[in-house]
Amino acid sequence: MHDKPLLKSVGELLHRRHGVSTRAARPTPDGFVLDNAKVAAFTAGTISTEDEVALADEVAELLPHHWDMPTKSVEALTPLVDHLGGQPQLMAWLDHQPGLPRLTARIYVLLGHLDQYSEDSAVLDAVRHARSQNPYPTGLRGYLTPETNDETLGGLAFRIEELLGDNRQEDATALALTTADWLRRAARDAENPNADVREMGELMGHLHDDISEAAPRS
């Protein structure tokens, strides 16, 4: 993963996203729990390489369900996050494991930036300008809010996470890539972009490359 998208992440990468309170509860993996023994071994520095790989897979599977899983299952993440130093460090750890953990980490960094930029008026102006040219770009129809507002980007983040939670990794990846590329182009084509908009475009370019690199090859 490029360093800049992760370093520029602020706040929580895991939180209740726009739309979660209004959707129907989706099924969660039957009996799925995070292996506390593996977590304890990891925080103690005694975990085997094989168990660390398995733990990373378990964490990647749990993250999209962190608002649907039983509290005890989600709380099992806390010592792991604390040991690593925070949620960005959790993503960096997942990024070191190939497959689903790496893909999940890179998508969650994108989601964090979408939530961040939801409150940036200059970025939203660039998005409005892009939508004045093409209100529903290919791949985003059915995902974008009718009006561009502070729920537009957070809504995309929610839909991507929802697809991950439904085990539709291919669809989640496609939507993540389409979103990142669309925002990169929106920044490029913005009228009088400020530093935040230019930086957003650069970050989206990095994130598009990162997610594309981590995606399974068909």
Main beta sheet strand tally, sense and closure = none
Strand content: under 5%
Mean pLDDT: 88
Q: What spatial form do the alpha-carbon principal axes imply? A: elongated
CA-CA gap between termini:
21 Å
**Class by alpha and beta content:** mainly alpha
Q: What radius of gyration results from the CA coordinates?
A: 17 Å
**Helix content percent band:** 55-70%
Based on DSSP secondary structure assignment, what is the total number of beta strands? 0
Q: Any idea how many domains?
A: 1
Low-pLDDT stretches are 19-25
Number of helices: 11
Please write the string of helix (H) and strand (E) elements. HHHHHHHHHHH
Structural overview:
By secondary structure, this protein is mostly helical. It has one domain (9-214). It has 11 helices and no strands. The longest helix is centred in the last third of the chain and has 20 residues, at 169-188. Residues 19-25 have low confidence and may be disordered.
Can I get a quick summary?
It contains eleven helices and no strands. The protein is mostly helical and 218 residues long.
Q: What layout of secondary structure does this protein have?
A:
Blueprint: H1 3-7, H2 36-44, H3 49-62, H4 71-75, H5 77-84, H6 87-95, H7 100-117, H8 121-133, H9 152-165, H10 169-188, H11 195-214
Q: What keywords describe this structure?
A:
218 residues; mainly alpha; 11 helices; 0% strand
